[in-house]
């Protein structure tokens, strides 16, 4: 959402169009949507709305709706959405620019001296045809089963087939209205003797849902999940039969926890992003958020390369920076998925036992049985397991049922079930090496991330350590050079321009450093803006502003801190002194920091830093 604030009002549109937060803040565990509630977890806290650590709150918005908004933004930038029928007259490479080609699928690619030749299939008059494109860089954002990844021979590493599920997208305004009035929530974990499933309530007002149901092939076949069968499963989990249930789509999918062994291939010409580079369990929203971060990290680097500011080696820093984050988020999503499995385990339905039963039936012993008998045995065992969920068994008067319900309450109370927010990872992820000048120091976070050992969601602690996202603080413009009077420090980096930012305090040595940095940046053909952050109350003084301190350069802005009661100053927030300075990349991550007092030879040091970040030598610029 922080990134979307920079995309032509996209974050604001999402906030307007998403369901009200009270309709999706809870995860609800129940025997059916109209049956007993086993427990619920509220994932929103008052501080989530205070906008202290971020200028925007989390959101709940369906992917296909997001895609529509993104397409609209692209059209506003002059892109045109085209179907195969609209493209018959376009045969020259130059005419493909700013085209979004619907109905095309990548089927081949061949590296060339100047880039990549891509073959794409499309349908014409009922027949499949192929069209060739030549591009400098191919960004593969083609999903978890990426064709591009397979074509360049990049393997995935991690846990494969954690679980297989059937996804049932359906509409029912009757069900939506019922849940609105009785038990609004985002996720419903439903356990009863007839069926088990997880219902995602995308929009209760519109009555839009996606139901996830586990299935075990080959005994259970995807083809068995007809629209009629899916409706019956829905009715079992709802507890009554809404008359307006309309099944929109049914798809099988497998849950993996894998990261690509490489993100960059073919001499920096083919780059994997999003699900093509990493596949997570859908626990915590890490899939889409990590993918969007990938694109944000990559965009300014491609732009720097195409504008001859950086060398091709800057593309390698995308993999160096993003792959460790993907591995860390994979481990965290697996841990969160296992936390979700603690609930059925407490109810006597250990998922590992179900997988073991399935493996036995698939083994040499079970495989000698006819397929119909294998299916009957599997479903019979599962039915016996689900019988433990009957109200006759699962109640406070039954000693075993009472013990299981008590264990369930303990899991919810201790925060050991599936979690929604991970502030330390959502905002606090940090690149340890790459297009930055690292501080060095301890690597505790990296070790913890790689091992997957964590003690649940942790608070986000703002940091100005190189590789971190720039901390958020509200500031007030002290001159008329900014479009808004009060804004976030994150807004100092433009979303529509390739520009670095140097943050200093109004200290003489820092002004010297800023003038030298502006001069070196000009030699490197790098756009640089200087921000001078003044202490709170500076606007009341007569002499405020940098005036002629940075002459002859004019690309600077003076701002004043807006501190909340008992909150820290900007430099305290960054764990630095007012003699410090911070260089921020176009993707809002910190590239370099130091104290102006510690630099004796400013110009050579700034040249060294920009050379490291951009992968170029001054003589080559």
Question: How are the elements arranged and paired?
Answer:
Layout: H1 10-17, E1 26-30, E2 37-42, H2 63-76, E3 80-82, E4 99-101, E5 105-111, E6 116-124, E7 127-135, E8 138-140, H3 147-151, E9 156-171, H4 173-182, E10 187-191, E11 196-203, E12 208-214, H5 227-238, E13 246-260, E14 264-265, E15 270-272, E16 278-279, H6 286-306, H7 314-346, H8 351-362, H9 364-367, H10 371-386, H11 399-413, H12 423-426, H13 444-451, E17 474-477, E18 486-488, E19 500-504, H14 508-523, E20 528-534, E21 556-561, H15 570-573, E22 580-584, E23 590-595, H16 602-614
Folded structure, characterized:
Strands 2-1-10-11-12-9-13-16 form an eight-stranded mixed β-sheet, with helices on both faces. Strands 18-17-21-20-19-22-23 form a seven-stranded mixed β-sheet, with helices on one face. A three-stranded antiparallel β-sheet has the order 5-6-7. With 621 residues, it is of the alpha+beta class. Strand 22 and strand 23 (590-595) form a beta hairpin. Helices cover 31% and strands 22% of the residues. The longest helix has 33 residues, at 314-346. The protein starts with 9 loop residues before the first helix and ends in a 7-residue tail after the last helix. The chain is built from 16 helices and 23 strands. The chain has helices at residues 10-17, 63-76, 147-151, 173-182, 227-238, 286-306, 314-346, 351-362, 364-367, 371-386, 399-413, 423-426, 444-451, 508-523, 570-573, 602-614, and strands spanning 26-30, 37-42, 80-82, 99-101, 105-111, 116-124, 127-135, 138-140, 156-171, 187-191, 196-203, 208-214, 246-260, 264-265, 270-272, 278-279, 474-477, 486-488, 500-504, 528-534, 556-561, 580-584, 590-595. Residues 1-328 form the FAD-binding domain. This is 2,4-dichlorophenol 6-monooxygenase isoform X2. One of its GO terms (molecular function) is FAD binding.
């Amino acid at each position: 959402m922080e990134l979307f604030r920079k995309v032509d009002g996209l974050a604001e549109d999402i906030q307007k169009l998403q369901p009200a937060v009270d309709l999706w803040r809870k995860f609800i565990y129940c025997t059916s949507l109209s049956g007993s509630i086993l427990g619920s977890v509220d994932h929103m806290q008052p501080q989530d709305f205070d906008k202290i650590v971020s200028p925007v709150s989390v959101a709940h918005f369906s992917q296909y709706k997001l895609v529509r908004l993104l397409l609209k933004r692209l059209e506003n930038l002059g892109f045109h959405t085209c179907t195969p029928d609209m493209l018959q007259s376009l045969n020259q490479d130059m005419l493909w620019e700013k085209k979004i080609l619907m109905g095309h699928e990548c089927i081949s690619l061949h590296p060339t001296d100047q880039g990549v030749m891509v073959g794409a299939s499309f349908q014409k008059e009922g027949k499949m045809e192929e069209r060739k494109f030549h591009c400098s860089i191919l960004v593969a954002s083609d999903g978890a089963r990426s064709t591009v990844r397979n074509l360049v021979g990049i393997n995935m590493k991690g846990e494969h087939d954690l679980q297989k599920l059937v996804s049932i997208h359906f509409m029912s305004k009757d069900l939506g209205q019922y849940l609105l009035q009785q038990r609004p929530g985002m996720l419903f974990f439903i356990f009863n003797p007839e069926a088990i499933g997880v219902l995602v309530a995308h929009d209760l007002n519109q009555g839009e849902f996606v139901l996830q149901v586990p299935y075990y092939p080959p005994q259970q076949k995807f083809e068995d999940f007809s629209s009629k069968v899916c409706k019956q499963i829905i009715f079992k989990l709802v507890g009554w039969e809404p008359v307006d249930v309309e099944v929109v789509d049914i798809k099988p999918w497998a849950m993996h926890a894998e990261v690509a062994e490489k993100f960059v291939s073919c001499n920096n010409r083919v780059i994997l992003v999003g699900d093509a580079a990493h596949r997570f369990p859908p626990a915590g929203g890490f899939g889409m958020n990590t993918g969007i971060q990938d694109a944000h990290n990559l965009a300014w680097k491609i732009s720097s390369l195409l504008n001859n500011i950086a060398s091709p080696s800057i593309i390698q820093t995308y993999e160096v920076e993003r792959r460790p984050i993907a591995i860390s988020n994979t481990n965290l999503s697996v841990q969160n998925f296992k936390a979700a499995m603690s609930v059925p385990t407490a109810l006597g339905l250990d998922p590992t036992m179900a997988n073991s039963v399935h493996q036995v039936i698939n083994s040499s012993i079970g495989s000698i049985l006819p397929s119909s008998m294998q299916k009957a045995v599997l479903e019979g065992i599962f039915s016996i397991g689900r019988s433990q969920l009957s109200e006759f068994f699962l109640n406070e008067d039954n000693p075993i049922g009472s013990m299981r319900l008590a264990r369930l309450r303990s899991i919810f109370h201790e925060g050991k079930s599936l979690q929604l927010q991970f502030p330390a990872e959502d905002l606090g992820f940090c690149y340890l090496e790459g297009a930055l000048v690292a501080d060095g120091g301890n690597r505790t976070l990296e070790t913890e991330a790689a091992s997957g050992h964590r003690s649940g969601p942790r608070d986000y602690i703002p940091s100005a350590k190189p590789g971190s996202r720039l901390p958020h603080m509200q500031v007030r413009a002290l001159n008329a050079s900014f479009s808004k009077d009060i804004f976030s420090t994150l807004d100092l980096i433009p979303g529509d321009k390739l520009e670095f930012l140097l943050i200093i305090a109004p200290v003489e040595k820092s002004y010297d450093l800023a003038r030298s940095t502006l001069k070196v940046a000009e030699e490197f053909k790098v756009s640089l803006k200087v921000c001078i952050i003044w202490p709170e109350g500076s606007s009341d003084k007569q002499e405020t502003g940098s005036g002629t301190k940075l002459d002859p350069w004019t690309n600077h802005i003076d701002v004043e801190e807006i501190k909340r009661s008992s909150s820290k100053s900007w430099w305290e927030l960054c764990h630095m002194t007012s003699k410090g300075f911070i260089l921020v990349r176009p993707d809002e991550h910190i590239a370099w920091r130091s104290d102006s007092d510690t630099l004796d030879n400013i110009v050579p040091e700034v040249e060294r830093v920009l050379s490291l970040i951009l992968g170029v030598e001054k003589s080559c610029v």
